[in-house]
Design a protein that fits this description.
0% strand, 2 domains, elongated, mainly alpha, 5 helices, 165 residues
Length: 165
């Protein structure tokens, strides 16, 4: 006998026992998993990712906080104050343009990397849900890899189903 999705009941019981045996409840954060024993201590990073991926992901995490926006606003305010004191020399605006362009370029790649990882993770979760549902259309698993013609055919099929419903 299996639980929905073809998972043996013993496996489900083992997972529940494992979770129940944990002394502390795990804290889940993006890219992090595991219990936190002391205040401020970070959970262990899930392994298997390259150093560059972890660094760009951390950059994305840090810049997503409101503090990063406040820090950027304070930096611009400080830049204007120091510029006013120095009389805004000719090189002043060039440095601002170079720094802001460089930061923008780095952030574009950080955002792109983070979104691509998140999209891939969401796709894997949706694929797993399709596998677990007994009456789901299995042709939709990994449909993001399908050709344009296959996607168009599936879209027409969905429109036909909607019109019938």
């Amino acid at each position: 006998m299996t639980v929905s999705g073809g998972v043996p009941p013993e496996s489900v019981k083992q997972r529940r026992r494992f979770i129940g045996q944990r002394l502390e409840r795990p804290r889940w954060r993006q890219g992090l998993i595991g219990p936190v024993s002391r205040v401020g201590q970070r959970p262990v990073d899930v392994g298997g990712r390259q150093l560059g991926s972890r660094l760009v992901h951390r950059l994305g995490e840090y810049t997503a906080h409101a503090t990063a926006g406040l820090l950027a606003a304070a930096s611009i305010g400080g830049w204007l104050i120091v510029g006013g004191v120095l009389g805004f020399p000719g090189w002043w605006d060039n440095v601002l343009f170079i720094v802001s362009s460089s930061v923008t370029l780095v952030m574009v790649f950080a955002i792109q990397h983070t979104q691509a990882r998140q999209e891939s993770a969401v796709q894997r979760k949706l694929d797993e849900l399709l596998r677990a549902l007994p009456h789901a259309d299995r042709r939709l698993i990994a449909v993001e890899q399908a050709s344009d013609a296959e996607l168009a055919a599936l879209a027409e099929l969905n429109l036909a189903d909607r019109e019938r419903g």
